[in-house]
Automatic annotation (TrEMBL), chain A:
Xref: SUPFAM superfamilies: HydB/Nqo4-like
Protein name according to UniProt: Uptake hydrogenase large subunit
Gene name of the record: hyaB
Keywords: Metal-binding, Nickel, Oxidoreductase
Gene3D superfamilies attached to this UniProt entry: Cytochrome-c3 Hydrogenase, chain B
Subunit description: Heterodimer of a large and a small subunit.
Cofactor(s) listed in the protein's UniProt record: Ni(2+)
Coiled-coil parts of chain: none
PANTHER family from the UniProt entry: HYDROGENASE-2 LARGE CHAIN (PTHR42958), UPTAKE HYDROGENASE LARGE SUBUNIT (PTHR42958:SF2)
Automatic annotation (TrEMBL), chain B:
Coiled coil: none
TM spans (from-to): 350-373
Protein name: hydrogenase (acceptor)
Residues in NADH:ubiquinone oxidoreductase-like 20kDa subunit domain copies: 84-230
Protein EC: 1.12.99.6
Cofactor list: [3Fe-4S] cluster; [4Fe-4S] cluster
Homology family: Belongs to the [NiFe]/[NiFeSe] hydrogenase small subunit family.
Reactions catalysed according to its record: H2 + A = AH2
Organism: Ferrimonas gelatinilytica
UniProt xrefs under PANTHER family: HYDROGENASE-2 SMALL CHAIN (PTHR30013:SF7), NIFE / NIFESE HYDROGENASE SMALL SUBUNIT FAMILY MEMBER (PTHR30013)
């Protein structure tokens, strides 16, 4: 007899996500549905505004991967107007993006994802001296993991528990049998959870130095970057560099050893060794590091075949709305997409919690559409980025991935798992963090001979323009598409990372990454579905992003002729 | 009795009231501070700074300190509606890190979808528990606007599939105070920009209770935490301007405290981004700066531990803490010049006085409508 489990809200993510699963008599998941439960209609709002404001407005799609949409929106308009931006502006944008990654990935690991791997209550029974010794197994220079510090953290947690008011830690899944860390390891992780709250502030300040504030920086304009005074100030440059060093230090001495520790503890835990049901991956070129070089290359991998990677062909992208809350129609290329809401609601049925409104898997059940590449679902994000670059033989990526595999003793296949996806985010953070110093040096060298930060865009109101941008946002490949007519936005489209990952099943019955990743997962207690949350969190959901930005009802976005080199 | 004496008396009464409540925590703040390596001296210094930031005389500093010690007795429920989570991100940027983090720990955070460990059914249980256990005592913070079209079904949250509208009504009913955090909750924000496809509304247009509006996209971490502190100290909402924004944070025009104001007065303007004037820090008015029409403390408090703010980064203010700024302040890189704003027609340099004049009237009207009503209610209980 199958049972329905409803998980809503999926907490510790950006936005509003509901996941439902059906489990068999052995509590193994046989079916899964991913449903986004908020629609904002920003697509409609974009129309008729000046393209110069596109970045500022689309940035408000998401305050977590803040900056990503700002940059993508600004660069789509630059591409449409056929302009290039000054080298300094490229480097500053790259530095801001690096700063964002260092912040976003760290916050995801410690504050959004960690509590799926770390049992806070178990940390109470740890021996702080043994925990301090344990920390030394994973790095010879641990952060916030000396015996005294660990004891203080333990006492702080103990007092919280004793008070009976656990605040944000209340009523979670503590004691679940799939938690695999020892009490000592849990204590180390809790200490780092608290320390990371401090370090993330510093990481955010890095972006604010050149961006004015974080979240939602305000220094990008069509044609360049406005923070020229900050760029020309040696004090400001060094402020960025010293904060970078502080965050870098934490990544090396806490984030890396914590992932190694978790990988060792969880490498035999079945619930984290699946979770990659879709083995097609998509990533794009990004991170200018100087001399026209980029840290990451783009490409597509199908069927997990690392021996074969092809270039992205944007014409292969189509979006299906069969099971999304929009008016039906054939799968359309994003430029031709139609967004007309058609909410059909929930269906009452018996669940493990009693009768509840649930998704109708045969009908429509999400505000997210289902993008497909050549008719196939694909995963995007840090894992996709690493796999594409590994397959391309990108030296930095190959060395970093091989380094992690050798440290953990895991085979390449281990990457195609929930655990592998979480580890990939760390490796990407390290790569970006190191590359940021190359970008910084390139900027400093360039400033000595060139102080240009902005070129005035030229827009003829009597002319039509089309253009797009592709960037690798923290959650994966993000593209914005714009058509400009009469000096105003005539149509706007964003194809967003979490849309690729979280979309519902399509007309051909092909299941997207979230849903596919849950099939076969066994739950210890279906009423406390920790295993489900852990798998979904490994993708780092960002639902405000996922729910379409773009296209205006019934209006063709135009005939985009896009070369893959345009990324 | 002077206003401040009255305020002081009120503050003392409030603190006595809070101190009399059953303690949630088992360790006095002093011990926690010590455990965190924070000296009493550092703590008092922080209290003095916060007192100044709240625009209170320094005699109030000991009360800020006292308030921090009892702060955990205020349960906080934080809701996410139609939003981008930028305001939650701003909240976790709280500067003067350790003390602010401590403060955050000392509020009993009962529900916050981005931070809480529980999910799904268990998360909903936490919300239901808090609504019942802390009836009339909890502070309600709302992030995001409320979609009202289509019966509110553009947003549902939780296993029971409640709409955002239903959740707001239920949680607002017994809140001690309600704070709309950010421009979306306060004024509708980006999803309410024309043509507002989901009929997204600010919190105060969906419920009838008084609401404090913290404009800003997002508001600075200072403005969020400072407002929570005000409620904890005085047990009521702070004095508000005509848009129900706390005067301590939104009482002055960006233009009046701008670091580039001298350039404006001298007629020195950036003509294009990145020009020599931009390198010298000239005024950004001609680049579309909306500082003359915007009320916020960005020039004095800045963002991210005072690191920067948009004008320092060479971009004009976009007026993000003002109602309907996506429609009234656009195009953001074009100067508005002389135009009607909030039904007032003044040139940039004179608009401030006009708005301030209207503010006084607004405060009076609002005070009668909401604050005093709230006071009477409290006194009756």
């Amino acid at each position: 007899m199958s049972k329905r489990v409803v998980v809503d809200p999926i907490t510790r993510i950006e936005g509003h996500l509901r996941v439902e699963v059906e489990v068999d008599e052995n509590n193994v998941i046989t079916k899964a549905w991913s449903s986004s439960t908020l629609w904002r209609g920003i697509e409609v709002i974009m129309k008729g505004r000046t393209p110069m404001d596109a970045g500022l407005l689309t940035q408000r799609i998401c305050g977590v991967c803040t900056y990503s949409h700002y940059r993508a929106g600004t660069e789509a308009v630059e591409n449409a107007l056929g302009m290039t931006i000054p080298v300094n502006a490229q480097y500053l944008r790259s530095l801001m993006q690096s700063s964002l990654y260092m912040h976003d990935h760290m916050v995801h690991f410690y504050h959004l994802h960690a509590l799926d791997w770390v049992d806070v209550v178990s940390a109470l029974s740890a021996d702080p001296a043994a925990a301090a010794a344990e920390a030394m197994r994973w790095t010879d220079k641990p952060v916030a993991a000396g015996e005294g510090e660990l004891r203080a953290v333990q006492e702080r947690v103990a007092k919280l528990v004793a008070s009976g008011k656990l605040g944000p830690f209340a009523n979670a899944y503590w004691g679940n049998g799939t938690y695999q860390l020892s009490p000592e390891q849990n204590l180390i992780a809790v200490s780092h959870y608290l320390k990371a709250l401090e370090v993330q502030r510093v990481a955010a300040e890095m972006l604010a130095i050149f961006g004015g504030k974080q979240p939602h920086p305000q220094s990008l304009v069509v044609g360049g970057v406005t923070s020229v005074r900050d760029m020309l100030s040696p004090a400001r440059l060094q402020e960025w560099k010293s904060k970078h060093a502080q965050v870098h230090d934490f990544i090396l001495r806490a984030y890396l050893p914590d992932v190694l520790m978790a990988a060792a503890a969880y490498k035999a835990e079945p619930s984290v060794l699946g979770g990659a049901g879709v083995k097609n991956f998509l990533a794009c070129k990004d991170f200018a590091i100087g001399n026209g070089q980029y840290l990451f290359q783009g490409g597509v991998i199908m069927n997990g075949d690392l021996a074969s990677v092809s270039d992205i062909d944007p014409a292969m992208i189509k979006e299906d709305v069969t099971h999304a809350w929009y008016q039906d129609g054939p799968a359309l290329h994003p430029y031709e997409g139609v967004t007309e809401p058609n909410y059909t609601g929930f269906t009452k049925r018996e669940t493990v919690y009693g009768e509840l409104p649930t998704v109708d898997g045969d009908g429509k059940y999400s505000w997210v559409k289902s993008p497909r590449y050549n008719g196939e679902p694909v995963e995007v994000g840090p894992l996709a980025c690493l796999l594409v670059n590994y397959a391309r033989g990108n030296d930095k990526v190959v060395n970093a991935v091989n380094g992690l595999l050798s440290l953990t003793g895991l085979p390449v296949e281990a990457l195609f798992t929930t655990l592998g996806r979480t580890a990939a985010r760390l490796v990407q953070t390290q790569l970006v963090c190191d590359a940021a110093l190359e970008t910084f040096d390139a900027l400093v060298n360039n400033i000595a001979v060139d102080q240009e930060t902005y070129r005035q865009p030229v827009m003829d109101p009597s002319q039509e323009y089309i253009g797009h941008s592709m960037i690798e946002a923290p959650r994966g490949m993000l593209s914005h598409w714009v058509r400009i007519a009469g000096g105003k936005v005539a149509n706007y489209q964003a194809v967003v990372p979490t849309t690729w990952n979280s979309g519902p099943v399509d007309a051909n019955g092909k299941v997207g990454p979230y849903e596919a990743s849950l099939i076969g997962l066994k739950l210890e207690d279906p009423t406390k579905p920790l295993e489900v949350i852990r798998v979904i969190h490994s993708f780092d959901p960002c639902m405000a992003c996922a729910v379409h930005v773009m296209d205006y009802k019934g209006v063709d976005l135009g005939q985009f002729q896009v070369g893959t080199s345009a990324a | 009795m002077s206003d401040y004496q009255a305020l002081m008396a009120r503050c003392e009464a409030r603190l006595a009231q809070l101190a009399a409540q059953a303690p949630i925590k088992t360790t006095p703040l002093a011990e926690k501070l010590e455990a965190e390596g924070i000296s009493r001296r550092d703590f008092m210094k922080w209290s003095a700074l916060t007192t100044t930031a709240l625009a209170l005389p320094l005699q109030f500093a000991p009360m800020v300190a006292k308030a921090a010690e009892v702060a955990d007795r205020v349960p906080l429920i934080w809701l996410h509606m139609a939003e981008c989570t930028g305001c939650s991100e701003s909240l976790i940027r709280c500067d003067t890190p350790t003390i602010d983090t401590l403060l955050f720990d000392h509020i009993s955070l009962e529900y916050h979808e981005t931070l809480m460990a529980a999910a799904g059914w268990q998360a909903e249980e936490n919300l239901e528990h808090a609504l019942e256990a802390y009836k009339g005592q909890y502070l309600l913070a709302v992030e995001g606007a409320i979609p009202t079209a289509n019966g509110g079904h553009y947003l549902t949250v939780g296993c029971k599939g409640h709409t955002g509208m239903e959740i707001i009504h239920e949680t607002a009913a017994n809140a001690a105070a309600i704070v709309s955090v950010g421009t979306c909750a306060a004024f509708g924000g980006v999803q309410a920009a024309a043509p507002n496809p989901t009929d997204a509304r600010p919190v105060d247009r969906v419920i009838s209770q008084p609401v404090v509006n913290l404009g800003g996209c997002p508001p600075s971490e200072k403005n969020i935490v400072g407002t929570l502190m005000y409620f904890i100290m005085f047990g009521k909402l702070p004095p508000l301007d005509m848009f129900n924004r706390p005067k301590w944070a939104y009482g002055a025009r960006v233009h009046d405290n701008c670091e580039r104001r001298g350039r404006f007065d001298a007629g020195e303007f950036v003509e294009t981004f990145g020009d020599e004037g931009a390198k010298e820090g000239y005024c950004l008015y001609k680049m579309g700066c909306k500082g003359p029409y915007t009320y916020n403390n960005c020039p004095t408090e800045r963002f991210n531990h005072h690191v920067s703010w948009p004008v320092l980064a060479g971009h004009g203010c976009i007026g993000c803490s003002e109602p309907n700024f996506w429609d009234t302040m656009a195009d953001f890189e074009t100067s508005l010049g002389r135009r009607e704003l909030h039904s007032l027609d003044k040139t940039a340099d004179f608009i401030g006085g006009a708005i301030l004049g209207a503010t006084v009237v607004g405060i009076g009207a609002h005070a009668v409508a909401s604050i005093f009503a709230k006071d009477n209610k409290e006194e009756q209980e």
